[in-house]
Amino acid sequence: MTDKRVCIRHARLDDWEPLTKLIAKMVVDHSKFDPMTNTTVVGEGILHGIRSNEAVFVAEHEEELRGYVAWVHLPLSPAGLVSGLGTYVEPEYRKVGVSKLLRDAATDFCKRKGYCVVQGVAHIDNEAGLQSSLANGFSITGHLVSKNL
């Protein structure tokens, strides 16, 4: 594929079925970093975001969804805080600026809604995700800790 230009647009409810396929790919892709990632939990948050007119954007090429970003203000979150529920771009659309376009659309949208902070997780073993986040203006503000029980 030589033409990787995509259309970035707000996700709609009729995107839900193809979007769930991308969410499942993201969960499988990220399971090597975080085996606790759950398709249902991530999906429910993203569906809430679509229904609530939050920053859920998709990258579309040739009428197929190729990536998404989901920054959602969840019901119990403090005012101004948006949860980064995920950014995913299919492998053949990576390294051409699609994730930047998605994040730029989400940033502009969130600023217009008056949000001031987006927080998400880039696992330490996900070097590409971490570098992409840092290149897109994120900073490391803490450490995710976990304990197996």
Explained architecture:
The radius of gyration is 15 Å and the shape is globular. With 149 residues, it is α+β, with helices and mostly antiparallel strands. The model has no long low-confidence stretch (mean pLDDT 87). It contains four helices and five strands, in the order E-H-H-E-E-E-H-E-H. Strands 1-2-3-4-5 form a five-stranded mixed sheet, with helices on both faces. 35% of the residues lie in helices and 21% in strands.
Q: What labels would you give this structure?
A:
five-stranded mixed sheet; about 150 residues
Q: Over all CA atoms, what is the radius of gyration?
A: 15 Å
The multimeric state of the shown protein is single chain
Order of helices and strands: EHHEEEHEH
Number of helices: 4
pLDDT < 50 runs, ≥5 residues: none
Beta-strand portion reads 15-25%
Give the strand order, joined by hyphens, for the main sheet.
1-2-3-4-5
Give the distance, in angstroms, between the N- and C-terminal Cα atoms: 46 Å
Assign the structural class, choosing from mainly alpha, mainly beta, alpha/beta, alpha+beta, or little secondary structure: alpha+beta
How much is the average pLDDT? 87
Q: What does the overall shape look like? A: globular
Please estimate the helix content.
25-40%
Task: Count every beta strand, where a strand is a DSSP E run of 2 or more residues.
Answer: 5
Main sheet specs:
5 strands, mixed
